[in-house]
Design a protein that fits this description.
The protein is of the alpha+beta class. The chain folds into two domains: about 10-150, DNA primase, PRIM domain, CATH 3.90.920.10; about 175-340, no CATH class. The protein is about 25% helix and about 25% strand. It has helices spanning about 50-60, 90-105, 115-120, 150-160, 215-225, 250-260, 265-270, 310-320, and strands at about 10, 15, 35, 40-45, 65-70, 75-80, 125-130, 140-145, 185-195, 200-205, 205-210, 230-235, 240-245, 250, 275, 280, 290, 295-300, 310, 330, 335-340. A hairpin with a 4-residue loop joins β5 (about 65-70) and β6. The radius of gyration is 24 Å and the shape is elongated.
């Protein structure tokens, strides 16, 4: 398949008419509960290693046959077990008995911290379809086997989307910095999203240039034409990265990137999230593959100063020792995330 679908879900239960299952205005006959085919567990944890460890514990403790294991594409796993079909005199009673059975099972597993019990006992729950892409992380929801639970890194690298060029997938599994994910099977670094947390659809634009093509006058023209404030310039081994804290929407961000022929234009045209690396690239053994982006200079501007600026991106710049401030700020807490990768990235 050339293009993978985003956000595809299916129901954990079977109904006579699934489209009418949750709407009480339809006739009861249309909303009959048939069965909950599998005993479903979602295991979510800020530390993906813990989620994998808990999944192995769950498999050992349950007497039911394991049917499937999925990496959800987010921050955890899903396990499906075969259970005996429940029979009852009415569909309503069948649903009640199924819920009672699930609640009893979940109660006996309360010591496994990663289990989201609501997924198991909710008969109207929908879950992500294997083969589809998680919109936030851009990881693929996939079938995995038991052996992979012993090597969490292999799950993450196998679920990455392969893209053209030297841009590889970034993993935003959690909203906070996650540790303990580095293994010998992949490389990692920290990054920050260009999207402004707490401001729907707004970005602090950053632009990537090959060093040989970067010119200050390009930035100066951008500031004048698009009323942009100061740009903060960072050096990596191959690229110049220019970050502006003034917020813009996606449409304007695209215009800015096209105007200066930024290297990250193509990614911006196809995806909502953009990223800027904020740390060294580390291999599985803890060695440094590429140093942290180095702050080089500020290209000041007489434009856009009084417009809204991104608070989280400003906080990041302040955290690395840049003494700046703007009068009108928007956004919430700065969020640094962990990425896995298999190609060179700025």
């Amino acid at each position: 398949m050339k293009y993978l679908p985003l956000e595809i879900y299916y129901s954990t239960s079977e109904f006579l008419n699934p489209l009418k299952a949750e709407n009480p205005s339809y006739q009861i006959a249309d909303r009959l509960f048939l069965r909950n085919k599998y005993l479903t567990f979602d295991l979510d944890n800020e530390d993906f290693n813990v989620a994998c460890s808990d999944a192995l514990k769950l498999i050992r403790e349950l007497d039911y046959p394991l049917k499937e294991i999925h990496f959800t594409g987010g921050k955890g796993l899903r396990l499906l077990f075969d259970v005996p079909r429940i029979t009852a005199e009415t569909p309503k009673r069948r649903e009640e008995l199924t819920i009672e059975q699930r609640e009893k099972i979940v109660d006996g597993l309360s010591h496994i911290e990663s289990i989201d019990s609501q997924i198991t006992i909710d008969m109207n729950r929908i879950i992500r379809f294997p083969g589809s892409v998680h919109r936030t992380t851009l990881f693929i929801c996939k079938h995995i086997d038991v052996n992979q639970l012993h090597n969490p890194g292999s799950i993450l690298t196998d679920a990455m989307i392969e893209r053209e060029g030297n841009f590889s997938h970034q993993n935003a599994i959690t909203e906070e910095e996650r540790t303990g994910l580095i293994s010998s099977s992949f490389k990692s670094y920290k990054f920050m999203d260009a999207m402004v947390s707490g401001c729907n659809g707004l970005y602090a634009p950053f632009l990537i240039f090959h060093k040989s093509r970067f010119r200050k006058k390009i930035i100066k023209n951008l500031q004048k034409v698009y009323n942009l404030s100061d740009f903060y310039i960072f050096d990596t081994e191959k690229y110049k990265v220019a970050l502006c804290c003034k917020t813009v929407d996606k449409r304007r961000y695209l215009k800015i990137a096209r105007f200066c022929k930024a290297k990250n234009l193509r990614i911006l045209e196809h995806y909502d999230h953009q990223w800027i690396r904020t740390s060294s690239i580390i291999n599985g053994g803890g060695g440094v593959i590429e140093n942290k982006p180095h702050f080089k200079e500020i290209i000041g501007s007489e434009y856009g100063y009084t417009n809204h600026h991104s608070k989280p991106h400003l906080q990041y710049l302040q955290s690395i020792g840049i003494d700046i401030d703007y009068p009108n700020l928007c956004g919430t807490k700065n969020k640094i995330k962990i990425s896995v990768m298999n190609n060179d990235n700025p």
